Amino acid sequence: MFSKIVFIFLLQIPLVSYCQQLTVLTESTSVSIRGLSVVDDKVIWVSGSNGMTGRSVDSGKTWKWMQVKGFEKNDFRDIEAFDAVTAVIMSIGEPAYILKTNDGGNTWKVVFEDKRKGMFLDAMEFWNEQSGIVIGDPVEGKIFIARTFDGGDSWQGLPHENYPQAMEGEALFAASGTNIRPLSLSEAVFVTGGKYSRLFIRDQQITLPVMQGKETTGANSIAVFNNKKRKPAKQMLVVGGDFTADTVAVQNAAISNDGGKTWLLPETPPYGYRSCVEYISGKRLIACGTSGVDVSEDGGKNWRLISKEGFHVCRKAKNGKAVFLAGKDGRIAKLLW
Q: Among residues 171, 80, 195, which one has the least CA distance to residue 119?
């Protein structure tokens, strides 16, 4: 009798360990979504092509879609939301724009504009509701960075001499708004791609062991696990690959457990090119790209494909446990564990 009980228990273990699945909440709207900000388990904001933004205040059950007046042709590749009524969106291309709403997306105010040739914003990140950073492709050989200290109401670029120097053919991908992340309460870390793919941390530039050499290759996203301590985080993971060969699972992810000093490749990598990676806990991660969604339960050493449905971005609630994904055709999904 005892051996029978043990046998039944062992049969149940895979069912518990492999129950992750995606539930699609909405799709078939005229927007490709790359901006996703999950405030808590109920409030979710998205942004994307055709000047579109969207908001749900009931865990994704219903959505309010809003096209930003005067920006119908802009592509808002990143969004940072603070609550159900306050959010900041970032538009790529020339001119580069950042806008803010304080009324749930009904109206938006331009808080940053740069008409210089070559301007192309890639991602935003905020430490808190006041302090944030935006990063963009190199202008005159230097990577663009601007900061805000008033919740995105105004932005100031760094002094020109303080902009990081890029190598020829090196840039950033506006793929999911996650190629820059907080490292500590006051520092940020970002990754580049293209002909060169590097990690920029303080005054260091560390070459990443991911696919590089072409304009379409390199790191697209970095995730940093930080228990909100004052010390800089040590645990981080990058994903990328070649977005023109999105099922190639070679040099598409790398892990660091010492703050980016050294990197290891996964034993079992994600299924293919991945544009976004997110920590769910210290050991659990999710990554997504145009060829599918993977999860890891051992800190990124081994990945398992749970869906071949393509998504651009995945984010966990800043104040909660919910995990959402978004992609082309207005597709938004929720991860169920």
A: 171
Are the C-beta atoms of residues 144 and 137 closer than 8 Å to each other?
Answer: yes
The rounded distance, in Å, linking the Cα atoms of 100 and 310 is 29
Cα-only R_g, the chain = 19
Query: Mapping DSSP to helix (H, G, I), strand (E, B) and coil, where does residue 88 land?
Result: strand
Residue 73, helix vs strand vs coil: coil
CB 328 within 8 A of CB 52: no
Q: Which domains does the chain have, with CATH numbers?
A: 19-336 (2.130.10.10)
One-letter identity of residue 308: K
Question: Residues 62-98: pLDDT tens digits?
Answer: 999 999 999 999 999 999 999 999 999 999 999 999 9
Phi, psi of 125 (to 5 degrees): -150, 145
Alpha-carbon distance of 25 to 277, in angstroms, equals 20
pTM over 0.85: yes
Give the length of the chain.
337
The rounded Cα 241 to chain-centroid distance in angstroms is 15
Model pLDDT for residues 6-50, shown as the tens digit of each residue:
332 333 333 334 568 999 999 888 899 999 999 999 999 999 999
